[in-house]
Amino acid sequence: MTRKTLQEIVDENPDAETFRYGDSQLLCNKITDLVRAGRKTATVEAMRVYQGRGGDALPEVGRRDIALNWNGTPALMVETVEVTTRRFDEMDEDFVAAQGEFRDLAHWRKVYRAYFSRSGGVAEDMEIMCERFRVVEDYA
Hints:
Helix content is 29%, strand content 28%. The protein is of the alpha+beta class. The protein has one domain (6-138): Sulfate adenylyltransferase, CATH 3.10.400.10. The radius of gyration is 15 Å and the shape is globular. InterPro entries: ASCH_domain, DUF984, PUA-like_sf.
């Protein structure tokens, strides 16, 4: 079976956004593996990423997006099943568990404080986007 190119996938899904998990190759690989294994079905991002000129498109329920490997090749097609917003200090254990990569809420807070600090800053009252998704297709 011939693998589809990213362009072929985009042509078949013109409304799809492309993105990478994480902000390093190591993190991208780790998170992609968790999603592929079904252990990660949720993610968060700072709302500032979606606001202002040139911001990313906010996930929408029902939209299918293309998760890329770090090298830009297609990894997975995911479909958004829920999008909510909350403050950083309102995160709960249930959503943390759905993210599949954290021991508990305290671990989540530590890891995301570091991540958000690398990408523009963190505050207890900052708004974050919380997305639940499902894998539609695996391009591996």
